[in-house]
């Protein structure tokens, strides 16, 4: 079972790995020391365009979420019914998922928050949960995100959108 300390270290390592990788790609990336609710770091290019980035790091098999962050789910008589998507405050937020491996073998999955929501909209079916009908637990595994592996162009596209007056 993960302890608070190991969870904190995983988060810290993931954020710093992402900042370092963005630096290798010519961007300035600044993580925050404290908790910023919607994002974990800012990345900026040589033109001064900046975007927020959410980082999710694991050293286990999957990233854990509450489906209520993505979908409207109603429980009726112990059965979950999906009633649509949640409206995100930042649907174009860039998310970088990090799978911590041995040094130098870490994996990065780069997508937008709306892509993750789309994944859950396609895969989460609701129904009767085996142990707790009210459980909103859901997870995403690395094999679910293969199409986003090393898609660093998502960051470049987001920075360009900022420069063109579009959403990040």
Tags for this entry?
168 residues; five-stranded mixed beta sheet; Trna Endonuclease, Chain: A, domain 1; 3 helices; 9 strands; two-stranded antiparallel ribbon; globular; alpha+beta
H-E string: HEEEEEEEEHEH
Q: Into which percentage range does the β-strand content fall?
A: 25-35%
Number of strands: 9
Unreliable spans are none
Fraction in helix = 25-40%
- Multimeric organization: single chain
Rounded mean pLDDT is 92
Distance between the termini: 36 Å
The CATH class assignment of one domain is Alpha Beta
| Shape designation | globular
Largest sheet: 5 strands, mixed
Radius of gyration over C-alpha positions, nearest whole angstrom = 17 Å
- Work out the helix count: 3
The CATH architecture of one domain can be named as: 3-Layer(aba) Sandwich
> If you consult CATH, what is the topology of one domain?
Trna Endonuclease, Chain: A, domain 1
Q: Strand order, biggest sheet?
A: 1-2-3-7-8
Helix/sheet category: alpha+beta
Task: Walk me through what this model shows.
By secondary structure, the chain is of the alpha+beta class. The chain has a domain at 4-67 and 89-122 and 146-163: Trna Endonuclease, Chain: A, domain 1 (3-Layer(aba) Sandwich), CATH 3.40.1350. The protein has three helices and nine strands. The chain has helices spanning 4-24, 113-123, 153-163; strands at 28-31, 41-44, 50-58, 63-66, 71-76, 79-85, 94-99, 107-112, 137-140. The strands form three sheets. Strands 1-2-3-7-8 form a five-stranded mixed sheet.
């Amino acid at each position: 079972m993960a302890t608070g300390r190991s969870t904190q270290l995983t988060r810290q390592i993931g954020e710093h790995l992402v900042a370092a990788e963005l630096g290798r790609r010519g961007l300035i990336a600044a993580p925050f020391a404290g908790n910023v609710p919607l994002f974990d770091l800012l990345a900026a290019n040589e033109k001064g365009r900046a975007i927020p980035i959410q980082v999710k790091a694991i050293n286990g098999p999957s990233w854990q979420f509450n489906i209520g962050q993505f979908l409207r789910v109603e429980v009726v008589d112990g059965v979950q019914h999906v009633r649509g998507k949640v409206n995100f405050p930042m649907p174009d937020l860039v998310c970088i998922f990090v799978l911590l491996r041995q040094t130098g073998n870490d994996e990065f999955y780069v997508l937008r928050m709306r892509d993750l929501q789309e994944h859950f909209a396609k895969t989460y079916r609701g129904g009767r949960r085996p142990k707790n009908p009210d459980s909103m637990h859901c997870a995403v595994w690395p094999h679910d995100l293969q199409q986003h592996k090393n898609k660093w162009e998502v960051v470049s596209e987001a920075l360009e959108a900022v420069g063109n007056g579009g959403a990040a």
